[in-house]
Amino acid sequence: MKVLNASIHGILDYATVIAFASAPTLLGFSGAPVMLAYLLAAVHLAMTVLTDMPLGLVKIIPMRVHALVEMLVGPTLIAAALLAP
């Protein structure tokens, strides 16, 4: 199911990277959550840059693989946040 076109998806991906990278400062994180936020920012940036879409720079990862990873990681992050002590 295609909800967004690839250009809008790319814009949202880069915005997500900015959100992950700025969350520790904006939300006052410390310890492990800081490292997790920076790790997520780095991995998401790499995946976005390497995806075969209009805003991807290297175009190695097929968009279907990119979307599958996001469909798995998104709910996992939500569940982790809800289960965290």
Q: What is the residue-mean pLDDT, rounded to a whole number? A: 92
How far apart are the first and last residues' alpha carbons, in Å?
35 Å
Helix content: over 70%
Which regions are unreliable across 5 or more consecutive residues at pLDDT < 50?
none
Number of domains: 1
Largest sheet: none
CA-based gyration radius? 14 Å
**Order of helix and strand elements from N to C terminus:** HHH
Q: Name the beta content range.
A: under 5%
Structural class: mainly alpha
What's the overall geometry? globular
Question: What is the tally of beta strands?
Answer: 0
How many helical elements? 3
List descriptors.
single chain; 85 residues
Summarize this, please?
The chain is an all-alpha fold and 85 residues long.
Describe what this molecule looks like in 3D.
The protein is mainly alpha-helical. The chain has one domain (6-83). Helices cover 73% and strands 0% of the residues. Helix 1 (6-27) packs antiparallel against helix 2. The longest helix has 22 residues, at 6-27.
Write the topology of this structure.
Layout lengths: L5 H22 L4 H19 L12 H21 L2
Helix pairs in contact: 1-2
